[in-house]
Amino acid sequence: MIDKAMYVAMTGASATMKAQASVSHNLANANTVGFQATLAGTVAAPVAGEGHGSRVAVSHRTLGVSAAPGAINATGNTLDVALDQERWLAVQTPGGETAYTRAGDLKLSPNGLLTTASGLSVLDQQGAPIAIPPHESLHIGGDGTISIVPLGEPEANIGEAGRLQVVAARTDELVRGDDGLMRLPPGAEPLPPAAGKVLTAGALEQSNADPTASLVSMIQLSRQFEMQVRVLQSGDENAQASNSLLSSR
What we know:
This protein is of the alpha+beta class. It folds into 2 domains: 2-68 and 209-248, no CATH class; 72-205, no CATH class. Helix content is 26%, strand content 29%. The protein has 2 helices and 17 strands. The strands form 7 sheets. Strands 5, 6, 9 and 13 form a 4-stranded antiparallel beta sheet that branches. Strands 10-11-12 form a 3-stranded antiparallel beta sheet, with no helix packed on it. A hairpin with a 4-residue loop joins strand 10 and strand 11. The protein starts with a helix and ends with a helix. It comes from Lysobacter spongiicola DSM 21749. Belongs to the flagella basal body rod proteins family. Residues 201-245 form the Flagellar basal-body/hook protein C-terminal domain.
């Protein structure tokens, strides 16, 4: 019984440390534009092997990504976009793959490429990086259309410079990678561009991570970890006491 208790406490402590890491990651991104909190928890994990299946360990498991909307803050910046719910902006990863994000704080590189704040190229509806020519003014429409007045031209000469590739998908239909970007699961069909209004220009969606709830969760997990360590210490003390009794006979 002692070894069973110690094993359960050990796996519980390990799972608690991993849960603490997930909560810490959410808290660290409480001010990250478009960030969606990781949902994680602990589950019972029966121990496989020979003999009667009476042992159950504890395992940490990532349960998904929170689809709760973040607060929308108006910025007035022409390159800031807040995506509508279940809408994702297509970007190109350094490896040339297509991934998706809700971070709408876009930038223009010195050579005119439209990128995310982290430097990833934003894709158009044909899947190519968007390049913006020199311009007097720029406007992003609710459907993702980018309109500009070319440099040196009058305001009446408005032309289309491209259209953001924004797709429709539920959060649970995508998988988040280690780089924080969302991707389609293996074998899934490519997502078509979403029609109609897909975003609000001049605004940003803030992180949906709740700092207060994260801090409370960190305290709870810390206390839980301390209790599990105490169980391990008690089990070790009981084992030593048992060995002493056996050796004295």
